Amino acid sequence: MRLTTRTNLALRTLMVCAVNPERIVRKSDVAKAINASENHLAQVVNQLGQSGFITTLRGRHGGFTLARPAAEISVGSVFRAFEAELPFIECFSDDNTCPLKGVCRMSQHLTRAVESFYASLDPVTLGELTDCNEGLEAILSLEDCTRRVNTARCAQAQAVPA
Known about the structure:
8 helices, mainly alpha, two-stranded antiparallel sheet
């Protein structure tokens, strides 16, 4: 199984937003941070907004932010939003021209396998990927002060006994 570039860019874009929670993020900043084309990213940002993962703001000071906390965004739901339209194999397509259509039993196994893949990602949250991940923050923080605030917050959280 291979994920599309759009899914990869969507997850990276959400990570940038999660690492910079107090900031309205601009498409140009994200493109630079994740090494992506702004044109390709525009399509991804549009779909993230339509899918309810981000809130977009138009205008001169526009950009986007997470629509809900990173801890509430499931990686499985992001992957489904971007991958579900694309059939995993021809048998899942409306344009299925396979001569084995109707008699092949493999499609039921593939359906189960693909759903298992998504289900294994459902409990993984964006917050789990980004919270207190200093290496990620060093790459994706758009301001030095964001990095310092996140580092201090993580140090405090680690000092508190569970």
